[in-house]
Amino acid sequence: xxxxxxxxxxxxxxxxxxxxxxxxxxxxxxxxxxxxxxxxxxxxxxxxxxxxxxxxxxxxxxxxxxxxxxxxxxxxxxxxxxxxxxxxxxxxxxxxxxxxxxxxxxxxxxxxxxxxxxxxxxxxxxxxxxxxxxxxxxxxxxxxxxxxxxxxxxxxxxxxxxxxxxxxxxxxxxxxxxxxxxxxxxxxxxxxxxxxxxxxxxxxxxxxxxxxxxxxxxxxxxxxxxxxxxxxxxxxxxxxxxxxxxxxxxxxxxxxxxxxxxxxxxxxxxxxxxxxxxxxxxxxxxxxxxxxxxxxxxxxxxxxxxxxxxxxxxxxxxxxxxxxxxxxxxxxxxxxxxxxx
Length: 341
Ligand SMILES: [Mn+2]
What we know:
By secondary structure, this protein is α/β, with parallel strands linked by helices. The protein has 2 domains: 2-194, inorganic pyrophosphatase (n-terminal core) (Alpha-Beta Complex), CATH 3.90.1640.10; 199-329, Roll (Diaminopimelate Epimerase, Chain A, domain 1). It contains 12 helices and 11 strands. It has a 6-stranded mixed β-sheet with strand order 6-7-8-9-11-10, sandwiched between helices. It has a 5-stranded parallel β-sheet with strand order 2-1-3-4-5. Helix 3 (93-98) links the parallel strand 3 (78-82) and strand 4. The chain is globular, with a radius of gyration of 20 Å. The structure holds manganese (II) ion (MN).
C-alpha cells in the first residue's frame, strides 16, 4: 500500500525535502507543515520545508521553520511535493527536488499524474491535500495534536472556501469534526485564512469591484487589478486573493475573471465558474499553460494588461457560448471543484 510505503521511506530517510508549488496557498502550506510534524513523530530524519508563506499564515504553528526556495541545498534522500505537480516548483527548487534519491507526490489535483515519481498518493476525490494527509495520519497511527489539527483545518477551509464549494463531502466534514474535537479554534483560523483583509486590501477591493464590467448579457464578470491600483491602495499582491470568489457570486454571473497585473508585461488570470462552464478549458484556450479545476482555474499571460483586457473578453465569451461546457471532460473529472489556481 502506498500509505505504508511512504511510512517506510520516511523512516529510512536521513534528509527530507517537503514542498508545495512555488505559488503556495492555505492547502499546500497546511499540508507541508502537518506532514512535517507527523514525520517528526515517526522518524529521526531532518525535514526541510520549502516555501514563503504570506501574512495570513504567519501565526501557524511551525511556520517559522519554513525556508525560502533559494536557500534550500540538496542532496535529499526523499523529496515530497504536496498539493501540486513538480512542474509548479520554482526554477531553483525543481532540480533540487528532481535530484532527491526518492520522489513522492501527495495530491488531489485531477491533472496530477504518477509519472515522474517513485511513489504517488493521488486522490482527486479529496477536497484538499490536507484531507489526504488527515487520512494518512490515521493510517500511520499518529496521534492528532492541536497544532497538526489546526494546520489541517487551514488547508480544508481554504480549498473548500469554508465548506462552501461542491468539493466538500461527508468525508470532509467527518475529518473537520475530528479536528474540532481536538480543540482547534476554528473560528479564528477561518477568519484569518479566508475573511480578514488588510486596510490596504479593503481599499483595493472597493476599487476593483467598482471597476468590474459585465459581458455576455451579465453572465461574465471581469475585473482587473493594475499595479497602480495596488500602489494607490497601499495593498500587496496577496491582497488580491479571494476577490474573484466574491465576483462569481453575483446573481446572473456564470463566469468571473480577475486579471492581476503582476509585472508590466505579465498578467495572472483567475477564473471561477458556477458550474455550467468548465473554466479549466477556458484557461487552456487562452494559453496552453492554463488549467486547474472545472470551477476554479488560472493562467499566466506574458502580455500587457491593456492588451489582455482588449482581447480576452471576446475569447472568453466565445468559449462560454460554444462548448467549454463542464461535460466535455466529464470522463476525467468528478463534479466537485477543489482548488483555486
Ligand atoms: Mn489543494
